Amino acid sequence: MSERTARNIASDVSYGPDDEVGALNEITEQSVLGILSRISSGKVYDLSVDFFIGMPSFTVFGDPHFQMWMKKTPRGVLNDKNPLLMQNNPERVTWSGDALSMYTHTGTHIDAYNHFCLGLDCHTYNGFKADEHLGDQGWKVAGVNKMPPIITRGVMLDVAAFKQVTMLDPSYGISAEDLEGTAQQQNVKVQKGDAVLLRTGRMTVWPDVEKYTYNEPGLKLDGARWLVEDKGAILVGADNLSMEQWPSSDPNNPTPIHSYLLVKCGVPIIEVLWLEELAKDQVYEFAFIATPLKIRGATGAPLRPIAIPVR
Q1: Which of 104, 118, 197, 234 is the most exposed place for a label (fewest CB within 10 A)?
Q2: Domain boundaries, the chain
């Protein structure tokens, strides 16, 4: 084994010194068939938000806004005498086309393992170092393109409902005690291999940028440890912007949850989830399906996850 630490805390096993998949290695053909065979309804819950100009995003940290502009319009295509239309075109066919520019961590998205680094050597999951593996066109390792399609058992923990509030208080830290209490109240168990989605109620103010973005309630470190080390979750997501409590209550780390889950555990993070329909219908267990865009070397990517109830 190389000098890198090839250990995943979620399962306490080694996936090898060159592994780039992390806890998602726990998804197998058998586990996929197991959860899909339990589907009990044809109802599909869409867990993604719309992407639009002006949407809440990490622009508060200087990252790019979501931008969309028309690249082709019906009248413009004609007026520009597009070469395709200069051929035989008696029906005057035209078209529309648009272009996008965005930070990869915009809207409903997944964080890849190379999103966060630790230490003076800036090492990410499995000890991969930026000086060795980061090029001008992205990371050479552990990019979002290496993540497989995610199909696994999903559990939604409605912490806001457990605390009997519409939305958790600003900067509230979700503890292990909160998660355990929520699971007990919902009569659901978090199991090894689960994708666990946390509802803070933050989406009740979406898409108000000021109300949604600042002073977020979110996961604390002991809550993350309960999910991963005690229960074996392989993915954690939430309905807020950065998934964890903001500002951090840890004086030594502004982002302890990202550091712990991505770098130390190899557990991916999904942010800006739409969980309001699941909460309304009290659907707490489901088949969770999400397929990240295969952007080579990227630290994250938009995705459109869905939930289908199971028996």
Answers
A1: 118
A2: 22-51+104-309, 67-101
Taking 3-state DSSP, the helix, strand and coil percentages for the chain, each rounded to the nearest 5, stand at: 30, 20, 50
The whole-angstrom separation of Cα 235 and Cα 242 is 14
DSSP 3-state of 304: coil
Q: Whole-model pTM? A: 0.93
Q: Superfamily for 22-51+104-309?
A: Putative cyclase (3.50.30.50)
Q: In whole angstroms, what is the distance from residue 266 CA to residue 192 CA? A: 14
CA 214, CA 17: separation in Å to the nearest integer? 39
The predicted-structure confidence for 250-293, as pLDDT tens digits, reads as follows 888 999 999 999 999 999 999 999 999 999 999 999 999 999 99
What is the per-residue pLDDT across 86-132, written as a single tens digit (0 to 9) for each? 777 777 888 899 999 999 999 999 999 999 999 888 999 999 999 99
Burial of 114 (0-12, 13-18, 19+ CB in 10 A): buried
